[in-house]
Amino acid sequence: MTECGRLRLARCVVEQQWPLRRAAERFSVSVPTAARWAERYNRTLLEEWAYARPYSSEAERVAAYGQFLHTYNHHRGHTALGGLPPAARVTNLAGSHT
């Protein structure tokens, strides 16, 4: 499975609260593998967004989420992709074709 597929699985579990078994079946991986990917994504969220700096309010923290996702997907290098961001692997991003 590609890094983008792993990220999609992790987001389904962490953000959309899918049960691990459902995600594992949908993405054709074992439940322990799905759990490992979801936990790694969750840890990244905590370290690089939720607790990365002090926020003065919950609204400010939530507002910073969009910028975090943009940075994570378009600028932050991922080890599994040889230092490239996930967006570098996708050829059909919205707005990138003219």
Please tell me the total number of domains.
Answer: 1
What's the pLDDT, averaged over the residues? 87
**How many beta-strand elements?**
0
Q: What's the N-to-C terminus distance?
A: 29 Å
Please estimate the helix content.
55-70%
Shape: globular
Poorly predicted ranges:
none
Structural class: mainly alpha
Topology as a string of helices (H) and strands (E): HHHH
How large is the count of helical segments? 4
Report Rg: 15 Å
* Largest sheet, strands/sense/barrel: none
Percent strand: under 5%
Plain-language structure description:
This protein is an all-alpha fold. Helix content is about 60%, strand content about 0%. The protein has one domain (about 5-80). It starts with a helix and ends in a 24-residue tail after the last helix. About 10% of the residues are buried. The mean pLDDT is about 85.
Short description:
The chain is mainly alpha-helical and 98 residues long. 58% of the residues lie in helices and 0% in strands.
